[in-house]
Amino acid sequence: MAGPRxxxxxxxxxxxxxxxxxxxxxxxxxxxxHLLAPPGPQILAALAGEVxxxxxxxxxxxxxxxxxxxxxxxxxxARLGELEAAGLVRxx
Amino acid sequence: xxxxxxxxxxxxxxxxxxxxxxxxxxxxxxxxxxxxADEVADFTVRLEPATPWRRFARPSVAIRGDYTxxxxxxxxxxxxxxxxxxxxxxxxxxxxxxxLLLHAGIVARDGEALILTGASGAGKxxxxxxxxxxGWRFMGDEFGLLDPETGFxxxxxxxxSLKNAALALFDGxxxxxxxxxLRGTPKGMIRHLRPPAxxxxxxxxxxxxxxxxxxxxxxxFPAEDRPVGAAEVFVRLTQxxxxxxxxxxxxxxxxxxxxxxxxxxxxxxxxSAEAIAxxxxxxxxxx
Lengths: 92, 287
Description:
heterodimer; A: alpha+beta; Outer Surface Protein A, domain 3; 5 strands; B: alpha+beta; Phosphoenolpyruvate Carboxykinase, domain 3; 8 helices; 16 strands; globular
């Protein structure tokens, strides 16, 4: 069974600056600043204006990002829940 | 208002109105030699009786202005000067939209600025004041004004607020530069010190940020310094800014650029002499 499907705001709605392996991100719609560790920024990029569930996100980011986790899809699902709580992705 | 005074400090103009003459007379003495204020003030501070009959009977000063905090407690009239200073701080903290405000002491040398920031009581104000007496240009002990357009810091050389033990460090200062000793304030004993003449004469001259230090005072702390990671510097500076959120993307751009370009270190110290020696060493070694 497919999990919940999410979408993030398009890339022109966020501004991100790398600082020491982390990303500081300014989310224009909310005016809030977030500090994200990988794979948060990669998930946002994979969902920027494009709907997907955890499996789809994993497929999109695994092309150029190696997720070191026993169950990568479950790890992505957990991160999606956190990003949703932060207001950076929403369910569709 | 019965009495009024206009002040220009760095790029900001204030108009201070008061129901009593004395706080403004003290303010006028403290800010003697500052340049003439602009016709139109950026911010207005009003010192008013907390209740109408309180102008005469045990007078109590309420701080009002363009921006107010609903729960700000009134101060007794002998602390009227402090009320005026707090009023100016409050207007800046709540109303400043042009510059990103960093709660910090700022000093400069050769056009480059040192930012001293940290929790209240960390010693940034005292350190900035001491450095200002020892060859550095004093730019402010309360707020750094970061211009998002240029990345430069503008001076805001208000009267320095010396607290408790720090008063004794300036016993030798020209008495004409010192305000009255204010006892029983919410922060203990306070005495204001007019910044050095050079700081006032050059208060329109911005400086490029070159080093950020997070000082921390503890009587038993060994003198130590350590690097602070960029992400931590960023978070600490957002906490040290009163208007980061209200500036939106301009604040984000200004702060990320500052953190990306300027090295930062934390320093622990047990005496001001140690702190000054560390500042001089880290300044000489800055990237």
